[in-house]
Every structure is written in structure tokens, then in C-alpha cells.
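Lecture notes, unit on protein representations.

Consider one protein chain, 269 amino acids long.
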Amino acid sequence: MASDVSRLDGQLHLGPRTGGIGARRIALLEAIGYTGSITAAAKAVGLSYKGAWDAVNAANNLSDTPLVERSTGGVGGGGTRLTERGHRLVATYRAAEAEQARFLAQLNRRLAHLAGDDLNLMERLAMQTSARNQLLGRVTAVTRGAVNVEVDLELAGGDRLAAVITNASADNLGIEPGVAITALIKASWLIVAAGDMSDSRLSTRNRLVGTVESVIRDDVASEVTLRLPGGATLAAVITRESADTLALAEGDTATALFKASSVILAQAD
């Protein structure tokens, strides 16, 4: 049964304050730190260029301050660098990884009798979300109704959004002003509109205005990535026809629209 216990080695788990941290994401940050190039770092960890930037944007969204910064121009041309916060995170991860390896070696020796179905359940409980957009925020207001709770969040960069969840969910998450939380929004739940729709008369509560960072099209669908004023990014998947109608290009202003009920909240700390 020791081999079953070793399945927990695949990802670093530091308990409820941090959850699971992807080893590949840390490896990407580490590679950016010593190469100064997103292209070289992506190749080093086996990611595509787009996949690397998706991972970097997700990491920056979940951090209190950016982990990676881009630079343009200069004597050596543009590049990508790890910030001091990013260097510190990588160092902390590697130190914790070494401690975890020692702990798991001892766990394998002591808990060889652990039931296999318990291990399977533990792995399911540690399962990561498929929601593309994961935004770190802090609760600024809580309005309770008979059934649901409206939760107002301020994202790390200052952008704001609202979520509606049940009273039971709010109680389970310990929702109250000041609590750090992660907002999850699937890319397919976002509606994209050209221009600034923040003052339009719409029933959709969340209207995050940003700048188009990229538009990727295939024969059926398109992915639009917006960068918000606070620095976070949002990815939306819309139909190819809709993308062609909007005719958005890099640098254009656009609005991501989504209902408060489309936001899933997860405990960040």
C-alpha cells in the first residue's frame, strides 16, 4: 500500500491555507527567472507559448502583486522577468517541497495500512477546478437574504465584482468582510461586448471593462482575453460568428458581462 500513498507526491499540498500548487506552474516561474524569456521557459517545461502565457496570467491573477512582468524595447529588446514576489514564491515552494518529501517518506512508512478507498477520496477532494478564470479577491460587503447571499469582492488590482451564493455556502466558506476568497468564472459563461458597457441598462451585475489582449479564432469558436485596469486578465470563449461580428482587435476596449450567479467562490486562505 506504500505505492498508493506515494500518489500524493504528484502535487504539493500545504493544507487549507494554500490548497494545491501546480508543480508545472512553479517550474515555469522558475524557468522564467533564469532565462528571462517566456519562449525559452515554455520550452523548458514542455508548454506551448500560449499555454505559458495562460499560466502566467492565471498566476498573476491569483497573486496579491504580479509574479511576472513583461518589458519592451531597450538595448536587449523585450523580455519577461520574475518579480521579487515571484522569486520569493519559488524559493518558498522549493523549501516546502523538500520538507514535504521528508514528511511523505515518513508517512509511507507509518501509514502503509491506509485503506485504498480513503486515498481515492483524498485525491478527489484535492481535485482542481476546470474554471478558466480564477481571480483572487477580498470580501468588501455581504448582503444576506432569506435564501441567498450577495457578496461584493475587490480583486487584487482594485477591480470589483459581485457573486450570489446560498446562505449555506457562505457559512461553509466563512464569508465576511475582509476574508480573502477566489472567484471562479468559466470562460464560456462570459458575454463579450465591444466598447465600455459599464453604464448600460442591463440586468447583468458584473460588467468588467478591459483592453483586448488577444483574440484567437478557429472554425467554430474564438477566445477573447481582456486585461482589466487592475492588471487581472479574463478569458471568454464565444462563437466564431460572434467574434467576427464584434471585430475586436488587440488594444480595443471591450466589456466582459456575467451574472453574479455565474461566479463560484472558493476559500483562498
